[in-house]
Structure formats: C-alpha cells, structure tokens
Amino acid sequence: MKNDAIKRIAVFTSGGDAPGMNAAIRAVVRTASYYDLHVYGFHRGYEGLIDGDCTRLERKDVANIIHRGGTILKTARSKRFMTPEGRKMAYDSLRAFDVDACIAIGGNGTFTGANIFAQEYEFPIIGIPGTIDNDLFGTDFTLGFDTAVNTAIEAVDKIRDTADSHDRVFFVEVMGRHSGYIALHTGIASGAESVVIPEVETSIEDLVNVLNRSAKRKKLFSLIIVAEGSKLGSAAEIAQKVNGIAPQYDIRVAVIGHLQRGGAPSHFDRMLSSRLGNAAVQGLLEGKSDVMAGIINDDVVYTNLHDAIYKEKPIKDQMVKMAGILAM
Question: What residues act catalytically?
Fold first, then answer.
C-alpha cells in the first residue's frame, strides 16, 4: 500500500564507492517514477545533504548508467555530519526541498550516520548496503562485492603466470580491513595455497609449513592471499617474516589495491543493486524506516540499521575448512 505522506525522496551515496551504486540509483529513480514520486540526488553523500547540493533526477537522467562503476552522485566522508550541528543543517536542507524520506547507499559509516539521523529527527530513511567488503549483517551480499572479487581473481590469475614462470611465491594483498570475505573468496576461486584473514588465527610458521608442503609435492610456485586487515600485518610484512625463516623461497609481493573498487559491475551486482533499489522505495512506501534492505536466501529482507552495523557477520567455518582442503 502506498504511503501518501511520501512525495519526494532523497538518494545519496556515501563512504567508499562500490560497483553497482549507479544501478541502485537507477532502480530508486525508476521505481519512484512508477509511483509518481520525485527524487532528488544529493551529491557527495552527507556533505551534499548539509550543503543542499542536489539535482532532481528523472528517468532520463539515469539512462545508460547501469553498467558504469563508481557513482554519478559522487561520494565523500563527512566529519560535519558526525556533529549535531551538521545533522541539523542536513535536516533543514532536506525540509527546504520538501523531501519526505531518504535512501542512503553505503556501508558501516553511512549507516551509522543514517541510524542516528533517523532517530534524532524521526525521519524516514532506508539503507542500501553498498560496500565491497560484504561485512554488513542482514544481507548475504553487498553491492560491489562480487565485482571486487572478480577483479581480484583476474589479477591473481595474471600473477600466477609470472609466479609459475619464475618458480616464485607471491603474497597477494586484497582489500578487507576488518573482513576476510574478499580474500577468502579470491583464494578459493584462484586456487591459492593459503588465505590470511582477520577472522582466523594464522601464524608465520603455519605459512612456512604450507610452502614446505607444496615444495614436497614438487610444486615450485605458490600463491598466498592476504586481507589487508590481517592480524599478521600487511602482505609485505608477512612476506618479510616468512623470508626470515625460509630464505630458500623466492618471494614477491603484489598489492591489488583500489583496482578492486572500480570497473563495470558484474551481472550479479547489477541484479542485486536493482532489487535493493526497488526494495528501498517499496519499503519507504510501506512505512519502514531506520532499516537496511538486503537479500537473504534470495528473498528481500529489512534489517534494523543498528543490527546491520553492529551485529557480526561471521565467515562460515565450512568455507574456511574447504579452502584448506582444496589447497592441499
């Protein structure tokens, strides 16, 4: 049932960019258009809300963007929005444009601000999980994760060629400051000998044993995937420690870095973004607020923003065990 109190919706992207954000914006605008709602796209996340920097978005404005990486609305992190004064300016800005509800596309930081704002002003707001880290509770996948993993796998496949040619050990660092999802999926899909992630205890001695085991099997090159948030340190630091114990191995380091954030979204991310953009508008019209739209077991669900931010989304033990078995 349509909530007749909602006539105008604001949409913005905040925090780190993620492939699929444009597809989500497109879905929000076109779903809103279907229900005769007006959409205002605010630029640079919460900074745009505070400054009143927005553009009216119609169907034609989101044509030909579903395949584009990044975000047409730009993104930023806002220290001003962390203050009560900044949030008051954002609220006044929204009311000046007669905006009745917000859709925030982003990750933990974005949702923390949205959660506070929704409660402070009783303002309807729904989040769409846009982060390549896939670390938000309440959804099986987040926007950009699938594309980021595909990008990492493509890079690792190329690294494998040179590792094989020179009989080298490569420590490959992928993104994931607090989450090992990208590293684990990349490691399994690329056939790596080991994966180092924040969620699982690993020692330098464990990694040396992995290399020794590979050498006994006459495998002369190895790939080890490291999440940037590893408790053992960066890939370069880990490589140096391993080399100190096992200098017989020719070790190199590769950091994939921000390549993982860019590029055209995969089919999966385009579908996920489209479904969640549609679900966010539908949720607002059903009277939902202070929630995140997500997908669990292929069904749309709505999770309280506080839970989405603070509840853990643990790596499945079965996946970790499988990674070890397949690497033997």
Answer: 133
